[in-house]
């Protein structure tokens, strides 16, 4: 199946009020697992590569090109997305190597500066037919920089989306990045009010901290793209620990990375089903 752009994956789901899973790639096993899980579920998926992950690999291209190759070979629609990019240069690199969407995060800037920077990125990306996500109202827990009580104002969100021409908006509604427990309390009424104020899909960041029931409620209230990273990393790492505990003398990394990959694939398939059935 040819590579599918993020807007092709998101738009039909948006019209049908269905959630789409977007899962973060740290290494190639993550990308393989996410694609395998989507194929098991028979549902589309988004592979996300963050600026931090690009920095970890020394550049975007190694993990980015590998993810694009997996997306192109997948039996279900798969898009590759740049997540939480604060660097304009990294956005340009993602567009040049074939990413079909980017998330440009200027949320740390004052509102007017966020609008100006995001508008410039959107104009550049749209010339290349690349979909743009932005963020308004900081999502807590990102490197300790975001206040946990921040919420996105619906009126401001509507004005921001109109001024920047973004294709989707990540909003702060009670979730937080890097949560190891699934007990976040979402403001479902705020999600509904944001949905009513915007003509673009809403994105839920920090979804690892949201349990299955509230993921489904969030989608029903108006969320479309649901980002999950830490939850899968916790499962991946826990599986590796179990394998090494059972066989402390193992030297071949395939003996523990393979089971971890399989565990993540199964969880991706399950989570996609939760989001699609909401």
List the helices and strands and how they pair.
Elements: H1 6-15, E1 20-24, H2 28-41, E2 45-50, H3 51-57, H4 61-73, E3 78-85, H5 88-97, E4 101-104, H6 111-127, E5 131-136, H7 154-164, E6 168-171, H8 188-197, E7 202-204, H9 212-221, E8 223-228, H10 230-246, H11 254-276
Parallel strand pairs: 1-2, 1-8, 2-3, 3-4, 4-5, 5-6, 6-7, 7-8
Helix pairs in contact: 2-4, 2-11, 7-8, 10-11
Short recap of the structure:
This protein has 278 residues and is of the alpha/beta class.
Overall geometric form: globular
Main pleated sheet: 8 strands, parallel, barrel
Uncertain parts: 139-147
Number of helices: 11
Strand content: 15-25%
Quaternary state of the chains: single chain
Element string (H = helix, E = strand) = HEHEHHEHEHEHEHEHEHH
User: C-alpha Rg, in Å?
Assistant: 18 Å
Overview of the molecule:
- With 278 residues, the protein is α/β, with parallel strands linked by helices.
- Helices cover 51% and strands 15% of the residues.
- It is built from 11 helices and 8 strands.
- The protein has an 8-stranded parallel beta barrel with strand order 1-2-3-4-5-6-7-8, surrounded by 11 helices.
- Helix 2 links the parallel strand 1 and strand 2.
- The longest helix has 23 residues.
- It is globular, with a radius of gyration of 18 Å.
- About 3% of the residues have low confidence.
